């Protein structure tokens, strides 16, 4: 197993030995292929018909009608389908479909996606709001913004305005009805223990760097969120240092509250314990990446 010793120590301290063993097992398994039906271009019924014709076996999940788990083919086989070519489906991990569902983007709302590339969550929010929200998608990286543009266009998410900008520097006179901050993180929930390069890139320095940008981004989000409105903070990390601790620091002294996360099918998720009531942390396994989500409301 190529998981760094310092990470195993951190997990043991945070979760205890038994839960850490479960997490380490999750790092070992290969995750199943999952995708989301893009309801801006297709329907669940059409996709199911085509999958049956192609003899592709699938399962559904209780918390989203649009989410599909593929059982008998690889990602490359899904990419050969016209459904994929036409942008009628989008390959996306189940865990990364959760933050937009928790945020529940509404039609006519001004919505900010603070770190939008490659666009899975952005286009999902466009679909949930029937392309009738006003979504500003921010990305500062030149290469990643091209990927974002490509996916937004391919998915037919015409309600999305793409802005090349570091979200930490958004002017304070902007204000939004809803904000999604899927913050850059260490990726401690998505590690594959067979990756020989983990020790090269997964370091304590990486965690230090990400926590600095996380706190700055979250404080900015709370500043430009309209009073009475809600935002979602998420990461693909399972470390308290990047999750609960960041949320606690950012909301200290601010006029905000944690909104307990609840939605139909939540009991189906493989959840890890969290140290902040109302937040959610998913354990990595063959279906899910490790993922943390907090919903925060700015009080009027």
Q: What is the N-to-C order of secondary-structure elements (H for helix, E for strand)? A: HHEHEEHHEHEHEHEEHHEHEEEE
Please tell me the CATH architecture of the largest domain by its name.
Answer: 3-Layer(aba) Sandwich
How many domains in all?
2
| Terminal-residue CA separation | 50 Å
The CATH superfamily of the largest domain is Vaccinia Virus protein VP39
- Helicity range of the residues? 25-40%
Q: Could you give a short account of the major beta sheet?
A: 9 strands, mixed
Report the strand count: 13
Structural class: alpha/beta
Strand content: 15-25%
- CATH domain class of the largest domain: Alpha Beta
Residue runs with pLDDT of under 50 for 5 or more positions: none
In the CATH scheme, what's the topology name of the largest domain? Rossmann fold
Q: What do the pLDDT scores average to?
A: 97
Q: Roughly how many Å is the radius of gyration?
A: 19 Å
The best one-word shape is globular
